[in-house]
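Table S5 (text form). Sequence records supplied for joint modeling of the two-component complex.
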Amino acid sequence: MISFALIGAAAVAAAIGVVTARHPVHSVLWLIVHLCSLAVLYMTLHAPFLGLVQVLLYAGAVMVLFLFVLGLLSARTRPDPAEPEPLTGQLGWTIGAGVVIAAVLLLAAGAGAAGANPHALPAGFGGVSAFGQALFGPYLLPFEATALALLTAIVGVVALSTGHDEAMRRPPTEPEAEPEGPALDVSHAAMDPRRGVGGGRD
Amino acid sequence: MNIYLAALLKVVGVLAFVLGNAFILIWAERKISGYMQRRYGPLRVGGPAGLLQSAADILKLMAKEDFVPGGADLWLWWLAPAVALVPAVLVYLVLPIGRSFVLQNLSIGLVFFASVTSFTLIGIFMAGWGSNNKYSLLGAMRAGAQLFSYEIPLILSTIGVVMLTGSLTLQRIVAAQANVWFVVPQIVGFLVFYVASLAELNRTPFDLAEAESELIAGYFTEYSGIRWAMFAVAEYSNLFTTSALAVTLFLGGWRPLPLLAFIPGWVWFVLKTYVLVFVGIWIRWTLPRVRIDQLMDLGWKFLFPVSVANVLVTALVLAVR
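The corresponding structure-token record, covering 523 residues in total, follows.
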């Protein structure tokens, strides 16, 4: 119970850090702290495998992708505190939604506590085999559906980005014939400064 | 024994080993690279072999100014070396050093190892981004792409061993190698694991994140003194632990060679690990650095399909048998 209170407080503090940080990279780092606190909570709830997978997939992979993108996009920018809020009224909506979610969670937790005895866990609960049985047994359909949704997203991103690339690669105008010197071959064209860095070659 | 006292002893023991290991490996790398380049390496500090060169290095690093670059993100700057060092120390928890010598025999030791080491990248990113330096940032970005890409074949290559053993406990994986080391049935897995682990360690030929000729030193360009030393210690510790994991998964862990069983298991474990570490140093001073596109091609177009095929073939063989 004491550990739950400590780790829960850490998770809440990190979550507050996510929304109050002024720089998106700081937000992501707070989110990593939050996800790791959740992982420790899973471990105290007899689900060590889930906790470690949480660290491996969320903190180690998904958040790294976030950092990757944000680091590239906002390397130099420091946000201006005097800048007006682009999303007007978001604070009220956020607090409203938070209160609703907290109420629902409290109700669900109350209902759960009234029903099941938390100390009567089946043998092997939270272990790898129990985890796998659940994932590929009763939850097979949602699991595969999620995989399909992710695959769709990846294919969509690839399609969008390559289409974009083709448009970029096409020379803006017909290349003028060079009066003297040899005609541009592909490798020279790739290094043509007029087309920008790496144009036509990657 | 009091559990807190035992935990304290474990922590102190691991930290002492991490520092001692870095001490030995820094000297060994200087010496081995010297001989590979037809020179002697360190000669003067501590006897004719330069045994105390690392002590001189440590004194120099501790005496250096702890320089902070202008415009650095101070919190990330201060914390990054620690974030890189902590996972390097934590993974010793699950390494099976001897028959009954493991600090904590977790039932999911392999998952623990993978998830803890995935944290190294966050430390690298914090260092590169927090330095407010384009070379550091580029190094961190390269490290991100590289570690992220090679983590997938690295983990997939261990799945074959897990399938043969039916357990994620490292001690059980060693126990399952009583008759034949897994390097024989899982030779493909071992090779993929070793190449991917060299890339995870950011060592030549995969050291694009700190390519001196382009990026000065990559993500730790701006670091100096004791904070730079923390990164170096973490790297050498990771070199040891990754080699130790390869030994555990594929080379029989603490199991002795035939007829030499009178030598205790932990000696075998350390010996095999240092042999693999030597191979890593050997590769570093033999091969040139690959280009970034070659690196990505090797990871995604070769190691990844090979490791998936290895899992499928292992499954097929197990199903038929």
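Note: The CA atoms of residues 106 and 172 of chain B lie 11 Å apart.
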